[in-house]
Amino acid sequence: VQLVESGGGLVQPGGSLRLSCVASGFTFMRYIMKWYRQAPGKEREFVAGITGVGGINTLADSVKGRFTISSDNAKNTVYLQMNSLKPEDTAVYYCYAAGTNYWGQGTQVTVSS
Question: How would residue 89 be classed by pLDDT, with cut points 50, 70 and 90?
């Protein structure tokens, strides 16, 4: 089982990034896939989730209106489109298959001028 995130980087406030998480080794669409993030000195927090069937999604209040989660079951990939980024969005972003121990290694997002 493997979850591999990519797409992080350094961006200015107001900018955009698109994170990707490619899953392998399990039946991707059977799971709710989630994005979490962890900033330095803070606990890991939920950002967004999407069901494998139907694509029903939820977003944390702090990112509603700015972030969008989507998935492509044919590619076993979940995406996190992040717009209007703020310095407080700076964190390591992790992909997670709900109900399992499957976590990605994380991708760093830094929002700074």
Answer: very high
